[in-house]
Amino acid sequence: MRGIIFDLDDTLYKEIDFLKSAFRQIADVIGITGVYDFMLKCYRDGENAFKMVIERYNLSYTVDQLLDIYRNHKPDITLDLSIVATLDELKSRGWTMGLMTDGRSVTQRNKIDALGLSEWIEPNCILISEEFGYGKPDEHCYQYFIERYPNAKFCYVGDNLNKDFVTANKLGWQTICLLDDGRNVFSQQIVLPKEYLPQQTIKELPELLQLI
Questions:
Q1: Can you name the residues that pair with 156 across neighbouring β-strands?
Q2: How far apart are CA 8 and CA 12, in angstroms?
Q3: CA 144-196-111 angle, 5° bins
Q4: Are the beta carbons of 11 and 159 closer than 8 angstroms?
Q5: 177 and 161 in contact (C-beta within 8 Å)?
Q6: Other residues' Cβ atoms within 10 Å of the Cβ of residue 204
Q7: Contact 211, 200 (CB under 8 A)
Q8: Residue 94 to residue 90: CA distance in whole angstroms
Q9: Measured distance CA(197)–CA(163) in Å, rounded
Q10: What is the DSSP letter of 62?
Q11: Residue 180 DSSP class
C-alpha cells in the first residue's frame, strides 16, 4: 500500500489567496472604500494590517475582532486545475491520500471545505493540530498514519522547511518539497541542518507524479 500525505497551506493552494479572501471580507464588514488595498499594502510592507487599518480609518473595531473575521470567515479559494488533475491521477493510481496541517480547527476546516478536498481525502485521514493535540514536527502526527496503515510506504509533500520534513525523514518516508514560486507566506530562504531538508524538490505539484 502507498500513502501520500500533504501539507495544506502553500502546498495544495496558496495561502496568500486565503489572506486576500479574508481581507476582502474585512473590507466588506468595514464598508469603507480602499480598505482592502490598504490592508494588502500593509501586509506586503510587513506591517500589522489589522492595527494599521484601525488607526488609519479611526475604527471602533479591535484587532481581536478583525482577527476573528480573518480566522473564521468562509474563504473564497479554489484548487488550481493542475492540482485537481494531480489528485485525480493519484486516486486513479490507488494512492491513499492524507492531510496534515497546523492551525485552528475552524480556520483549517473552512479551507478544506472550500477546496473540496473530501473528494480525495477521507475524514479520518485529515489531521489538524488543534483537534489532534499535536502539530508538526511532533512524531505523533506521523505515527497516526503509520498505525492506521502499518504496511504502507509513505510520501510527505509540503513546503515548510522548519517542520515538514525532519520527522518524515527520520521515519524513512519519501519527502518532497514544493518550492516557493514567490507567493509563499513563509520564506524557504533559511539555513537548516541536512535532516530538515527534503529528499527531492519540485516547482509545480504535478511534477510529483514523476517521482513517486
A1: 5, 175
A2: 5
A3: 55
A4: yes
A5: yes
A6: 13
A7: yes
A8: 6
A9: 9
A10: -
A11: P
- Rg of the chain on CA atoms, in Å: 18
Question: Is residue 187 over pLDDT 80?
Answer: no
98: nearest Cα among 163, 29, 168: 168
Q: What does the block give as the cell for 83?
A: 492540482
Distance, C-alpha 78 to centroid of its chain: 13
> What is the band of 149 on the pLDDT scale with cuts at 50, 70, 90?
very high
> Rounded CA gap, 86 and 148, in Å?
24
Q: How far apart are CA 34 and CA 52, in angstroms?
A: 13
CA distance 73 to 46: 23
Question: Minimal CA–CA distance to 59: which of 67, 68, 50, 69?
Answer: 50
Query: Quick check: 1 pLDDT over 90?
Result: no
**Residue tagged 506521523 (cell numbers):** 142
The span from the CA of 120 to the CA of 118, in Å, is: 5
Residue 43: Cβ within 10 Å count = 17
* Selection from 113, 78, 88 nearest residue 206 by Cα: 88
| Cell numbers for 18 | 486565503
* Residue 99, strand partner residues: 6, 126
Query: Three cell numbers at 133?
Result: 493535540
DSSP 179: P
Write out pLDDT tens, residues 159-183: 999 999 999 999 999 999 999 988 8
- The string over 46-66, giving b where at least 16 C-beta atoms fall within 10 Å of a residue's C-beta and e elsewhere, is eeebbebbbeeeeeebeeeeb
